[in-house]
Design a protein that fits this description.
The structure is a homodimer. By secondary structure, chain A is of the alpha+beta class. The first copy, chain A, has 15 helices and twelve strands. The interface between A and B is large, with 74 and 74 residues.
């Protein structure tokens, strides 16, 4: 287990972020959703405290808590006043190491997970982006964490307990702390809480090709939703920030190309964006636009045109605006202990070390339109995958394989 | 125009929030959506800058910008590095006082507003909460700001210009600034930018009763959505924090009553909440739960039971947990210049003065279970309005008039 910290004595708060190898890529066959149910059940009592007491004691410390299950990892995080950090970590050591996973609460936990799964059916934009990732990556790397209904219904409490034992442990686990804390005292405290945590015997999932699927999802509505993905380099790649800046020119801020061409000039969409989605070994640019059925083809055509046009390079003025926005957001991130805890945890996962904001700032300063254009020349957007959801399929534009 | 500031020299950022009387309550008959289109058009060039230049210059200052149109007010806000605050305010003075409202961009702006309106049709939870507010308040106070399709299509550029002239001006306008800035220099700068802004001649909207509407909205889905509203006291009322704490016991945190009874014990929903929605003259508790069609009746019954049970009072331990969470969130709010700028602007609108976080903290300290229970005894939840969206209507539970 890795402990990484970034003290900022000017803050009154402290935040922590646990990244653990409990993502849905570890769901066994016919058990899609097991990682999600396990996370749900871990919150229902741990160590000397039952479900109600654990939550009450955490809230009495003023902790704002959040957890999520991704493909590779589960994330448990919290933020509170600096003086309450040690006591909050005691509660999370119980949660992670000694959860009760109570049999009598399994049905309620399962039901909450089924409700989440079914809620997505009513949210077409979310549903489409799930289907985009499912098609873009080989299994298990494009799975949605909320699983499948039949599999969720089949899960037993023994499945949950086995998942916890197999996947939760110090190997691959990162605890990041940011805000106002003393590093030496934190180290001693974490050593006491986690030093004797026995290593788990986790096996890495096998990557398998996806079955082929239809790229249009029929949906009875006057709205149509368009999603596009293409491969790019992951965060750990030395050229990552070149790719990231190119996506910024495409989609960051109101002067970005997608916002200007799709929304401002043509009023095709209320929402349009491209974002960089990175796992440790693979990454994509994911793009979304929601519009009316009658303007869906135009929206798709304009969006694809803007993506492919990146290959011609970006302008210096576009980069200047992007740099100004990033500089400002880096400073504001420094004022948020939660944002910093999340960032340095992810850094360690991807890079094996944490970047300070000064270091990120230097990387951004070093970006030039020449460096980005050299990257785009060698790695232009290609192999575009288009997935649509709406009343009718669309024509795939020229230039999309 | 009022300028209100809260300097926090330990931050590197500065944030501002303009509240202006440009909300959709001022939409004329047959022009529902005019406030929203006006806001959209104001972003398309102002003062010496055309649309692209205004946005580019703002982004070169690293400003993170956001705007929204509510019932009573329009809100334009931004956050940036402390040194860029004066230049950002120059751009916003142009935006607010000298927007071009260009005729040739009206169709694109209208189309973006129509897209937003239609997107809501695909989002059942959002649609339901709009319908709840529409039924809960007399017109115009429950209107959605995005207007109606026929009205949006009829709007001309003269309508937009007239709306701007009539409603945007110094009367009723509040500019709040938080973060790292010098108060005296800010005052001089704002005086220079806004001191000669002529007062607008705005007329207050008339309040009229709502036409009666069906309280079930048919929606073809396996999901059902339940919304409940009841009246409470607005922010400016001296007992506001008593009501607010009672809603906190109901819905703030994982130990709250709704979370415990609806989600944790029964697994009925993935999302359930109650929140306090306050205007200057009227306020409501608004409650939402989304579930499967087959569990919708049970969800409604349990939720209503929890709302009505508030009349029996709260426990000291519930209040203790709530206070701990609030204390922590107040400290974290102090570390966000954006959050503080928004808060002090709203304070001034509701109260005619800004509360410091120390003052809020004292109010929270003074809350007791006795004070809250006395309030709940005198003002129990009553006149519950239930609106549902899903495949079938539900039975209105006992205790709901």
């Amino acid at each position: 287990m890795v402990l990484v910290g970034e003290p900022t004595p000017s803050l009154e708060s402290a935040a922590f972020s646990f990244l653990l190898p409990g993502g849905c890529c570890y769901d066994p066959p016919q058990r899609a959703g097991l990682a999600a149910i396990t996370c749900e059940m871990m919150l229902r009592g741990a160590g000397p405290r039952d479900s109600r007491t654990w939550i009450a004691d955490l809230e009495n410390l003023g902790v704002e808590r959040g957890e999520s299950v991704g493909v590779s990892q589960a994330n448990f995080g919290g933020a509170t006043l600096k003086d309450n950090l040690p006591a909050a970590l005691v509660l999370f050591a119980d949660l992670l190491r000694r959860p009760h996973l109570p049999c009598e609460q399994l049905e309620a936990g399962r039901s909450a997970c089924l409700q989440e799964l079914q809620a997505v059916e009513d949210e077409p934009s979310q549903k489409l982006m799930i289907e985009l990732r499912r098609r873009r990556y080989p299994d298990p790397w494009g799975r949605p964490s909320h699983g499948e209904a039949d599999a969720l219904r089949a899960i037993t409490i023994d499945d949950v307990r086995a998942f916890h034992t197999r996947n939760y442990g110090p190997r691959g686990t990162i605890l990041a702390v940011a805000g106002n804390f003393d590093w030496r005292r934190l180290c001693a405290h974490v050593e006491q809480l986690f030093g004797d945590w026995p290593a788990q015997k986790q096996s890495e999932p096998a990557t398998t090709p996806n079955p082929s699927r239809e790229n249009h999802i029929p949906f009875d509505s006057n709205q149509a939703h368009v999603a596009i993905a293409y491969p790019t380099i992951p965060y750990k790649h030395p050229d990552y920030y070149q790719s990231w800046a190119a996506v910024g020119v495409l989609s960051s801020g109101s002067s970005s190309r997608l916002f200007t061409e799709v929304r401002e000039k043509r009023g095709l969409c209320y929402t349009v964006y491209a974002s960089l989605h990175t796992q440790r070994e693979r990454a994509s640019v994911l793009c979304y636009a929601g519009t009316t059925a009658e303007r869906a083809q135009e929206t798709l055509d304009v969006t694809v045109h803007e993506l492919l046009r990146l290959a011609d390079g970006i302008e210096q003025s576009e980069l200047d605006r992007l740099k100004a926005r990033i500089k400002s957001s880096l400073i504001m991130q420094q004022e948020s202990s939660s944002a910093r805890a999340g960032s340095i945890a992810r850094d360690w996962y991807h890079l094996g070390r944490a970047r300070t904001l000064d270091e990120v700032s230097e990387i951004v300063d070093a970006l030039t339109s020449e460096s980005i254009n050299a990257f785009l020349h060698d790695s232009p957007p290609r192999d575009l995958l288009v997935v649509t959801l709406g009343p009718e399929p669309l024509e795939v534009p020229v230039g999309v394989s």
